Automatic annotation (TrEMBL):
Cofactor: FAD
Entries under Gene3D superfamilies matching the protein: 3.30.390.30, FAD/NAD(P)-binding domain
Residues spanning the signal sequence: none
Any single GO CC term annotated in Swiss-Prot or TrEMBL for this entry: cytoplasm
Superkingdom of the source species: Bacteria
Domain Reductase C-terminal, chain residue ranges per copy: 322-386
The protein's name: NADPH-dependent 2,4-dienoyl-CoA reductase/sulfur reductase-like enzyme
A UniProt-annotated Pfam family: Reductase_C
Alphabetical UniProt keywords: FAD, Flavoprotein, Oxidoreductase
Amino acid sequence: MVIVGASVAGVRTAQALRAEGYAGTITMLDAESAEPYDKPPLSKNLLTGAASADDVRLFGEGEAHELEIDLRLGVRAVSLDLGARTVVCESGERFPFSQLVIASGARARRPAWASLTGVFTLRSMADAAAIRERLVPGSTVAIVGAGFIGAELASAAQAAGVQATLIDPLATPLARILGSEVGALLADWHRSKVATEFGVGVTDVSPEAGSLRVTLSDGRRLNADTVLVGIGVELNVEWLLDSPIHLDGGVLCDASGRALDAWGDPVPDVFAVGDVSRWFAPGRGAHVRVEHWTNAVEQSQVVARAVVDPGGAAAHHPSFAVWSDQFGSKIQMSGYTQAEDVVVVIDGERWVALYADGGSLVGVVTVNWPRLQMLARRTIASGGTRDVMVEQAQALREHAAAARPGG
Ligand SMILES: Cc1cc2nc3c(=O)[nH]c(=O)nc-3n(C[C@H](O)[C@H](O)[C@H](O)COP(=O)(O)OP(=O)(O)OC[C@H]3O[C@@H](n4cnc5c(N)ncnc54)[C@H](O)[C@@H]3O)c2cc1C
C-alpha cells in the first residue's frame, strides 16, 4: 500500500488500515518535511498561542514504528505510472504499489499579489508561524475572504490586539453554504464583532511606504500592515494529470472512495480520500467534494474497509459535519444546510437553524449550542422530523429562561 499525503486523510487511512487488520506494507509519503499535524488549529488556538506545535501533532515516528508504517517525509510525488503501478517522486525514487490511496489534499489559492512581502495565505504550520509573527498589537490587517478561515483569522487577529478588517465580495459571504437567511444572521454577527467590507472585492494589493495598499472594487483604498488571504483552495492533483484517473473538480470516486476513470469505471486498487477527492454522495445523487476534517476522517474509515474487504465495500453517507471557532463562539453544522425551508430559534448568544426537506430534518447549524447540534445530528441520521427539533429547541430556551434569576 502506498499513501500519497500524510495529513489527516492519509494518516487516518493508514491507522484505520491497521485497525482493520491490513497486514501488508504501508508506505506513506508527504511533500512536507514537518511531522504530520492537524490543520484546524492553525487558524484557531495555534494562532492565538493557546496551543503549541506539539499539541497539534497528528502522527510521529513512534506511532509509525509501532504500526509498521514507512513514513517518508519531504518526498513529493510527481507522477503516477498506473501501468507499472508505481508512484514516481521528484527525487527520482519510485514507489511500487499493489494498492494506492490518493490523499494529496489541497493548497491555498493565491492571487497574483500574494507573493508581496506582508501578504500571507494559511495552509501549513509554517504559514501559521509566519502569520503569528505579524499579529503585533496595534498593527492593522486586511483579511480577504470571509469564509470560515477568514473569520477565524479575523477573530485571532482581534484577540491579539490587531485592528482587523474582514473583506468579501459577497454581501452575505456564507449564504452559499448556509442559505441566505442563516448567511445574513452570520454576516450581521460578524459586523457586530469586527470591521467588515462585505459586497466589495479586492482588485489589487500593492506596497506603499512600508505597508500595503488594498484597492477595493468600488475604488476605495485601505492601508494595512498585513494582508491575509482566505479565498479557497487549489487541488494537489498535478502529479495525476497524465494518469487515467478522472479529475473533475477533484479525484472522481464512487461512494466508497474507489477512484474512477474517464468512463466512470473504478480504477482497480486506487482510492482517494479527503479534500482532493470528490465522492458520489448517494443522498444528494451527485459527486460532492468536501473540504472538512470530519469528512476526511469518515472517508478514511470507509476506504480502509474497502481495501481490506473489497467485496463488502459499502456506500458512504457523509455527515457533512463541520465546526468553526470564532470570536469566543463555537459554530457547528452538519447535513444539508442549503435547504430553503429553515427555522431559526434564537436564545441570546446561542441559536440554532434547522433545515427541512418535506418535513424531515436534513441540516443543522448551531452557535454555542452543542447539545442541540448532537440531538439534531441524531435526528437527521434517524430521518426524524424538523418540527420535533424546533419544539426541543424552544423547550430548552424556555427552560433556560426559567432558570435565570428573575425568570
Ligand atoms: C487553517 C485551516 C483551518 C481549518 N479548520 C477546519 C475546521 O475548523 N473544521 C473542519 O472541519 N475543517 C477545517 N479545515 C479543513 C481541514 O483541515 C481539511 O479538510 C483537511 O486538512 C483535509 O485533509 P487532507 O489530508 O485531505 O488534505 P491536506 O490537509 O491538504 O493534506 C494533504 C497532504 O498531502 C501532501 N501532498 C500534496 N501533494 C503531494 C505530493 N505531490 N506528494 C506528496 N505529498 C503531497 C501535502 O503536503 C499535505 O500534507 C481547516 C483547514 C485549514 C487550512
